[in-house]
# Entry
Amino acid sequence: MRLTAAPLVAAALLGLALSCRGFSPKAPSPRNLLLVSIDTLRADHLGCYGYASARTPVLDGLAASGLRFTQATTVVPLTLPAHCSLLTGTFPAHHGVRDNGGFYLGEEQATLAEALRAKGYRTGGFVGAFVLDSRWGIAQGFDRFFDDFDLSRYEGVGMDAVQRRGDEVVAKALAWLAEDRERPFLAWVHLYDPHTPYDPPEPYRKDFPATAAGAYDGEIAWSDALVGRLLDGLRADGRLAQTVVVVVGDHGESLGEHREQTHGFFVYDATVHIPLIVAGPGVSARTVTDQVRIVDVMPTALELLGQKAPESVQGRSLLPLARGERLSLVALSESWYPRYHYGWSELKALRDGRYKLIDAPRRELYDLARDPGERDDVSGADGARTEALGRALREALAGVTSTNAPKGPRAIDPEAEERLQALGYLGGGGSPRVLEERPRGDPKDKIGLYNLLKRAGLASVEGRVDEAIAAAREALRQDPEVVEGHLLLGNFQSKAGRPEEAVRAYRKALALDPEHQGALFSLALAYKKMGRLEDAAAGFERAQKLDPRATKPLWQLGDLEMRRGRFDRAKAILEEGLARKGDRPSFLLKLGECYLEMKRWDDAEKRLREAQALRPDLAGLQYDLALVHEGRGEVADAMGAYEADLRRDAKAYRSAFNLGRLLDRQGRGQEAIARYREALAVQPDFGTGELYLAKALLDTGDLRGAEEAARRGLARKPEPGVAPLGHYVLADVYTRQGRPEAAAREVAAARRMARGG
# Structure
């Protein structure tokens, strides 16, 4: 659907074209499309957009030879919804993805990859962040999609922190491109490096100032070099001359403007004004100053390739602008992040190139030609324009909104409601608070509170947990209805080892928003850690019903069934998880462990080897394989697997301990003692390890060492079946020392413990 400016606001900055051609119909027809999206990339931090401190020669060169759009705008300053609009050519109100996580691109949406694959193209997608994992639906139409994030490495961190460096992404893309040089291709390469934390590799780190902005610029320079690697790869095999290259930012970064440190909260130009460069065959040099949108990229690329855009596309091909024509487009932007996460108002914006209206509880209007930093709100001085733009915004949103697009959390299964209320998962009431139409706080009034919560999160990450708790409590004192504040407080209390306090905080969050996925999952996890397995299961079951596509609750439910000894039920749940798109290696590992408990050694090894093929360095894999070998009596193979686990992770204390056990059985006492000590150095509270160490020391004649280890082990809550060993070791020590009464007391204690007394 075409969005055009209202008559009152049709005037936009015209600028001067650097070339009189822009689009050359006589140029060779392109065969391929290289789409590079650079995450968190501000337009005004590139050399070709006038930034003197930039070191972006590759992107500057592309801009000089192709189309550079100076007024490109994204739809949402968040990665997943912005990319959904990039790849479908539709607005969030149509495709329904409004936030990172918890939203999925529906299978009914038509994507760029699907359109080109239907025409015989090879299609490959290569992403640098978990927010674009295929589980969110973004991989539709790609023959090859490289995501494969090992979530086990990121326990306790935000979803947007799960990422990989761009050189790994580019290497995978180049390898895929090299597999077939004959068929036309679509290659989408996503570089996440400019996203926080800013940590450019050398020499880019030293080439920029040691500030946040300097490190950000270093990441952009590094990303520029990675684009160069892609172009060099295509140039080397002769395909660059046949390839349309599109480089676009998904959103920008605030860097402190309007007191926002990063992005997602506001819709000022620091985060919604993006670079857009199109170069390649059929494209001549031209700077376009008209308003364009990220939704226009898909139809533009398809027209350059001689393909028709799907009927669902709401963007417009920009090639008429390249010929000097006018489209009079207006851009829509939004952020529901303040509402979904904090209960404050969402933000909507309309931008026509010259003027920008932000629809908030108190509307804002900016003249971008005079005030590009959006510091001077002129809504009061220009009421007529404000009203006209408000009407244009409402009409534009109505024109792109699909009635089928989800606005918020899914409804709960009513049959589960009574049980869950008893457990504290529901606060009463029916529909989720996030969907209630009621007066809400203006985000510009809440930025200080938002930053306080962000500082609390940073304090926790840096180990200052009590400081984090105090900051979260202060934020909740100022606004007790901030769901995210209660969730964070619960997380901090859990990290501080105060599970009861954590549970109270999570329950308060769910009282405000009964279907808050993060609070629900965290509460269930807290119950699990406390040993309240039935309560934990209720929470994970509800999380699964709220989001049937999620797989983390299934993994947890499978683990709970294993803890309760119900291995057949655990197996069925884990197999259900394997049938879905989730973290397949983790499910295979857990299923292998389930078979281990059932002593089905061959089935266990089969699943573990499948996991190994997908992720060779998966934590716990070698340990489990060692247990398989032990179960079969293959001692040498078991020892080899334990040693492999220790090479992978020197802190794998369970492997060190089990290796010690096997060495002990072979009469290699001193080697066994060394392994037990190795395990205890990593896990000092490992009572069972202390008792095995005590027995090994006793066998070597070290009575003093055996006594000390036995007493430490008994004090550190060893496994119940092993605990009597500590008393027997002490009894043996005292017998050898000629202390029969003391020995008799220890034997009696061991027997009582063995009987459960």
